[in-house]
Amino acid sequence: MLACAGCGAGSSTGQGAAAGAPNVQAVKVYAGPAGNYTNGAFTSVTVCLPGSATNCQTIDGVLVDSGSSGLRLLSSYAGGALTLALPQLYQANGNPLAECAQYADLSYTWGSVQKADVRLAGEVARSVPINVLGDPNMPPPPAACAYPGIDNDNLQALGANGLLGVGAFQQDCGTACAPGNGTPPSAAYYECSPGSPCQSTFVSLDSQVQNPVALFAADNNGIILRLPDVAGPQPSAAGTLVFGIGTRSNNGLGSAAVFQVDSAGNFLHPVVYDNRSYVDGYIDSGSNGIYFNSNGAIPACGAQSAFYCPAATLSLSATAQAVNNTSIPVKFSVADADQLFSNPSNYVLPDLAGTNSDSRVLDWGLPFFFGRSVYVAIASKQTSAGTGPFWAY
Question: What confidence tens digit (pLDDT) does each residue in 105-139 have?
């Protein structure tokens, strides 16, 4: 990305957040705990037995994911770091609760739903349902979860000790998975009776995997992910994850432009690039590149066919519509991914972009975040700019 070239009218790097403030968490973009992650923003998370201040474990190398909601931690049995025994969550009939999460790259995660107190900076979310991946007490994932897909329930595949979902929604599924919606259960939550195949099930909102930020006593209406401006490939970069929007002197919106988010987690209005509308545009720190369909205008790589390899670095621009109907330009650049990946020491690649077969989708992944303060307001939570969900930058 060019030096803050993507900052359009109304965008802002926001007010500074002092290290050590009770609502500020350190973030680092680096290779991750498996040493294989490009453009991953990692932090640490402390989990405790519910109600305990001392029976706790701090897990490093957890990926900050603004495109999902909920904490997922990889069990030590699957190569992760979590060793703390947490209480299992059960359905009313006494069967253990498990969850399957499926991702756009056709990968999946599977594991039990357990409860923990979650500590981030000086904030605490109590008795939070979290997803423990690779839990040896769970049976193998049902076919509806695992096929077709890549199993991410190990450290090398996931590239992280877990995922911290700090997206725009309080639960990871919401009413679609809750009782009383009149449709069959989705392939997300399962109850696993011993000796029987796991069966999909409805789950009450308070038992679904939760965005822990929404359960903080304060600073619970959203987050700000702040990453430095990066001019080119480098080994690492340091940033901050700030909790709350307009709740303290260090998390005001300033002049940031606000963009509404629909119930599916996309921009309410299409993002326009190259005179084409991408109706499913979204911002996602959990994606390692900017992914879009160029309609053949940009060549894909040979060795890395999921990425673009233009003959020379391209300076491009797209626009998104803010709440005041102003079209805000977002400038970004696309470099030859084969060349970017050729230096094994660099895991911060601001010009990385990839292909997408779906012409409706424009995924603003982590390169979008460099040089910006990106705000994510949680649905139904009040802020100085109105009720979430929305994004701002």
Answer: 889 999 999 999 999 999 999 999 999 999 999 99
Last-in-domain residue among 166, 196, 215: 215
pTM: 0.93
pLDDT digits (tens, 9 = 90+) for 265-284: 999 999 999 999 999 999 99
Q: CA 127, 17, 364 angle in degrees (round to 5)?
A: 75
Contacts of 271 (CB under 8 A, 6+ apart): 277, 278, 281, 318, 319, 320, 362
| Six-digit token string for 62 | 């957890």
Is the Cβ–Cβ distance between 206 and 213 less than 8 Å? no
Query: Is 172 in contact with 70 (CB distance < 8 Å)?
Result: yes
Whether residues 193 and 267 share a domain: the answer is no
Residue appearing with tokens 């626009």: 319
Q: What is the CATH number of the domain that holds 272?
A: 2.40.70
Burial of 12 (0-12, 13-18, 19+ CB in 10 A): middle
State the CATH number of the domain containing residue 177: 2.40.70.10
d(CA 304, CA 312): 17
- State the residue range of the domain holding 330: 248-392
